[in-house]
Structure formats: structure tokens, C-alpha cells
Amino acid sequence: MTKILMTSVRDDEQAAIKDYAKQHNIDIITTPKLIDDAIDLTNDVDGLVIQQRSKLPDDIYEKLHANGLKQIATRTAGFDMVDIKKANANGLTVTNVPAYSPRSVAEFALMQIFRLLRKTYRFDQQVANNDYRWFSDEQSMEIHTATIGIIGVGRIGGTLAKLLHALGATVLGYDTNPRTDFDGIVQFVPKDELLKRADVVSLHVDLNPTSKGLITANDFALMKPSAGLVNASRGPVVNTQDLINALKNGEIAAAALDTFEGEETVAAADRREKGLDDQPLVKELHAMDNVILTPHIAFFTNLAVQNMVDFALDDTLAILNGKSSAHEIKL
Questions:
Q1: Is 234 one of the catalytic residues?
Q2: Which of 115, 122, 263, 327 is catalytic?
Q3: CA dist 291 to 101, 253, 277, Å?
Q4: Which of 44, 70, 155, 189 is least enclosed by beta carbons within 10 angstroms?
């Protein structure tokens, strides 16, 4: 019987995993550990499915190869934690799940756009301190009067654009490959123009060498002082220190961050006792009353979790059976 190891498994994934194992008559071993700490479990398995944000150790690829593995499937869209060249050099095919549920992240981004437009972050802070007043600078915008800029109009950004268009917002888009199928929904413009015109900028790009540090001090300087930023893509897309400076200096009004630099040691962790001293930039963001932080949970819906499990396991079985997958990552 085919045996597959799945690492970093959460309780909410177990039902989908058990259903898949039963339907396909395979044995799936699960562990809450990262693959870093579960390498011994690969001695007697055929396939591997991982999920993590931290970088895989450099020596892990040789160990997996020595144990006879042929692939690594990450049940995430991002794959920057895997060294594709080292994996391939050790005979390991790497797959990801690029579209587990574009709607999940798009809906989350839409919620954060609403929160920034309606300035609920201000009222959250005030009410927490038993201050129930409202002030003239807290007057908000209705979505149909707002201009929203989307950087990265792919699966997720495109889904968000359709939702915003249905609500009557003006939607600007910037993408290295503008989409003609979004005529009448998105007005594609240069990045600088988008930053100048948008009331909220929402980021939906993959993390790659060209997108790392995509938003820096020069970009914040172009934005409206009343504008907000949503990042539901990857943390390093934004220069965090530049963002903090822009928020403090009033170059932009607020930010909603589901992804941020340093999250690999913060997201999904209980920091109530330890605090954030080892992540000073995250600590500073956490202390700001115009920042909404969430722990990389935009994807976390019923459909997305099911698809992440199913698609990653589908790819694993395909490769183990000598077939190819449309989700293979090739450099």
C-alpha cells in the first residue's frame, strides 16, 4: 500500500486527510512537526507533503533522496521555503497548490479593505479603552465612492477585482501581464499612477526576486495620506521599516497585514509569554493603532483547507505513479 507522510498537520485538516486515504486506499501518516524535525519518518514512506513558512534545511534534500523519495508537495501556493534547484539536483520533483481557493484570500482582502475605508481600527482601539466618541477625522468612505488599486491581478487579485467591481468601486490594476479579459472591470495603469490614485492598495503577487521589496519608501511617498495598504500576499513584498516610517510620518493612514516580515516565527505561535522582542519590527507594528495584524489566515476557510489537502495529495500520487503534474515548479 502506498504510504505518504504529511507534516505540519493541524487538527482541522484531519477529516479531509482521512477521507482522501479511504477513497484512494492509501496510508497517510500525519505529524504536527515540521519536516525539519520529522526526517526520520521518511525512512519508510513513498511520498511527502509539507506545509511551512520557514526555509527547509540545506541538508534535507540529500536525506530525502537517500530515503528513496521522488517528490515534495507543499500544500501552499508559496514555495519560497523550498530550494528548487537543490531539490531537483537530488531527484525531487516539487509541486505546490497555486489555486486552492482564490476566493478565500480575495474575500479576506475585501474585508480588510472595508475595515480600512471604514476606519474600524480606530474604533477598535477607542472602544477597548471605553472611549465611545467619534471624531471628524474618522469619517469613512462608502465602497462605491472609493478607488481600489490591485497590484498583481492574477487568480486572487482578479477574483478581488470582480468582487469590488460588483460593489461599484473603481478598480485600478497593475500587473506585468495586463489581462484583456478584465476589460470593463479593471483599468490597468502604471504602478506609480495606481499608487497616486488609490484609496486602498491591495497586494496579490507571488514572492520572487522581482517582487521582493516591491513596495518601499518611494512608493509610500506617492500614496495619498488618507490611503491604506492591504498585504495578503507575502511579507517581504513590503519593506517593513519603510512601511513603519510611512505610517508614523502620515504618508499613509493605515495598513492591514496578514503577511509580514518575521511572520515565520510569529504566525501560528503563542507569543503571550515570550512577547515579540526577538522580532522588533513586528513588535513595532503590533503596537501601532493604525495597523491591523492577522497571523497569515486569509486562506483559512473550509473549501481552501479541503483543496490544499486534496490537490497536494493528487500531485503526490501522480508523480509516484510516473505521471506529471501541472503544478510542478520548474526553474
A1: yes
A2: 263
A3: 26, 9, 18
A4: 44
